[in-house]
Model the fold of this input.
Amino acid sequence: MRIVRHILDLLFPTVCAYCRSPIDHSTVPFFCTTCWSDLAVIQGPSCPRCGRPFSSPEALSSSPQHMCASCRSQPPAFDQSLSVGYFEGPLREAIHVFKYRPVRSLGRPLGRWMARNVTFAELPDVIIPVPLHRRRLRYRGFNQALLLSHELTTHFSVPLSFDNLMRVRYTVPQVELSAADRRMNVEGAFRLSRPEHITGKAVLLVDDVFTTGATINECAAVCMQADAARVTALTLARAPE
Done:
């Protein structure tokens, strides 16, 4: 009975994955209404290039071109990076449950929350999810970035391109590596099968978490080599540095 109860709890949870209170009538799987409403949206001043939050408005106003020191010294391949929430609290737990349990059904509510809380100066021409290598895709069963992208393309009525950008080399999980090793780990790991399809277009790259930006930057570099007009990165959450 204990094994059966454990299986049922995994499939039909009765308590919130974050606060462990009863889920009751929540419409979001694995999370109570209170925790879901507490997802932390990034607010306040941030670097207009990489999206790194500044500690205060004063730090932003004293920064040349309002960019952080890292972007001034080593500009990233993307034109802009946006992250919707902080990788902490209920959002961090939701992403972990989504990716590692894994719970595919969280893709829709997370993607909808992402779409409702992001603002674009101009809409992109095409949305491209950061791809998984086929080996990891077989293991997880789905690409979390693609599920998030489905909600974005529905919300903004922007075309989705899910099979142009490919991960052609298997890489170890970035979470295990330092910032420098992350850059080396993904170098040359991506390519476009039809680069001409994004030439002259504004591309939106989508992923779940921005940590050092190594993966999204490598994808952006591949798109810029295909003469994309602009590359914007959008992630569900930004991890603290």
